[in-house]
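Notes for week 9. Today we move from apo structures to complexes. The key idea is that a small molecule is not decoration. When we ask for a structure prediction with magnesium ion present, the ligand SMILES becomes part of the input, just like the chain. The input block below holds both the sequence and the ligand string. Read it once before you look at the output, and try to guess where the molecule might sit.
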Amino acid sequence: MTKVSIVVPSYNEPLLDALAERLSRVLPPSSEIIFVDDSDVLPQVSNARVIRGAKRGIGDAVRLGILASEGEVVFHLDADVDDVTLALIPAFTSLIDAGNDVAMAERRERLQYRNVARLILSVGLFVAQRVFVFQSARFFDTQCGFKAFRRDAARRLATLQTVDGGMYDIEYLYIAVKNGMRIAQVPVPPMPEVRSSRIRVLRCLVTDPLALLRVKWNGLRGKYSR
Ligand SMILES: Nc1nc2c(ncn2[C@@H]2O[C@H](COP(=O)(O)OP(=O)(O)O)[C@@H](O)[C@H]2O)c(=O)[nH]1
Ligand SMILES: [Mg+2]
């Protein structure tokens, strides 16, 4: 059976034990769960590894988790993932087993947002990724916290990654496209918001555009190409 690694960046998350328990119900036996946590007090979670993050941001936490993982298929999940989406882990694993390098969930029904600042951020990102980064309408939702990678693809993405903050998803997809990786896009229903966001939105409004400029510049300079 395919060995699966689950990488979850976490910051002041209250229900990590419950998440590990919910995950263990859908994971094949030899799997591993890795939390990369930036909280001041590192949580203890049964049946999971908890790695101390470098407090550089969510993207850096995902990179640390991927590089520490040993599975043949590596998932990146947000801690607030719901059970409907968690139940897709076997299907996403099969998509990777079938030859895809990346399998990504996309909430296609409408743009997701919690408040006006998030709406501005979401619309801005949607336009920026289509018009500026990819120059294509291929992706609807680059930001969904549910993605699976073949082990070698995950390591390549994490090694080439330059973005420590929230734009790392777009950087991963941009590197994947530039490298001709096979990407399966799977529509999923919107996820319910179960707690307040851990994202500092106002900071993102400044740092995200700069990160996207960096990603595009790296791409144009051939930094991501084979
Ligand atoms: N390690 C780490 N994880 C973070 C950080 N910021 C957010 N996260 C985690 O990233 C995931 C996505 O955050 P979330 O608040 O759900 O984002 P939203 O749904 O887009 O508002 C969650 O698992 C958070 O705990 C950070 O600075 N460091
Ligand atoms: Mg969330």
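The radius of gyration is 16 Å.
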